[in-house]
Amino acid sequence: MKIKLALIVILFGLLTTQAQDKITVAVGTNSTFIETYNKNSWSGNFTLNKAYRLGPTSLKTLKDGVKTSLKWIELNNSYYKTFQKEVCRFKTMEKESFKFHGYVDEFAEEMTMIFYGESDGSFKIEIKPYNSYSIFITFTNLDMLRGFKDLLDGKSANNEIDDIFKK
């Protein structure tokens, strides 16, 4: 199956406490691929950590989850409550499995987005496999979450990249 890539963009992590140092989002005609990379402290190179494929329905669910999280951040900045709440669930496939098999529901993994609000107004958002301790993506910074939303919406953190793909 050939996928025409409409956009490839990169978002760099701003905090060292995050599970990933770099996130790449590639939006195609019927699929979106999200990859996380960790920076090797010895060589300075990035190593692929995890790569997942989202279908159109999962992408919409994730976008809606990010929008909801942005609203909850504003609310928590007003009310300063400590809470934990699941924002959404969506299905993904590991990128290599998808490339080999195509989409097979039995190979799909359910992911969840969880919002943690703190009484000081801070937050943490985790995207991870459902019923798992392993974390795919962590956001603790409002600008990073907004940047991720822009990437999912097809906007780039770098306007030069957008110009290249418009040509």
Kindly describe this structure.
- Keywords: Signal.
- Helix 1 (56-79) packs antiparallel against helix 3 (142-152).
- The chain has helices spanning 56-79, 95-101, 142-152, 159-166; strands at 5-12, 22-28, 32-39, 46-54, 83-94, 109-117, 123-129, 137-139.
- The protein has 4 helices and 8 strands.
- The chain has one domain.
Question: What's the short story on this structure?
Answer:
Keywords: Signal. This protein is α+β, with helices and mostly antiparallel strands.
Order of helices and strands: EEEEHEHEEEHH
In terms of DSSP E residues, the strand content is 35-45%
How many structural domains in the coordinates? 1
Rg over CA atoms, rounded to whole Å, is: 16 Å
Largest sheet: 8 strands, antiparallel
Any chance you could write out the topology, listing elements then pairs?
Layout: E1 5-12, E2 22-28, E3 32-39, E4 46-54, H1 56-79, E5 83-94, H2 95-101, E6 109-117, E7 123-129, E8 137-139, H3 142-152, H4 159-166
Antiparallel strand pairs: 1-2, 2-3, 3-4, 4-5, 5-6, 6-7, 7-8
Helix pairs in contact: 1-3
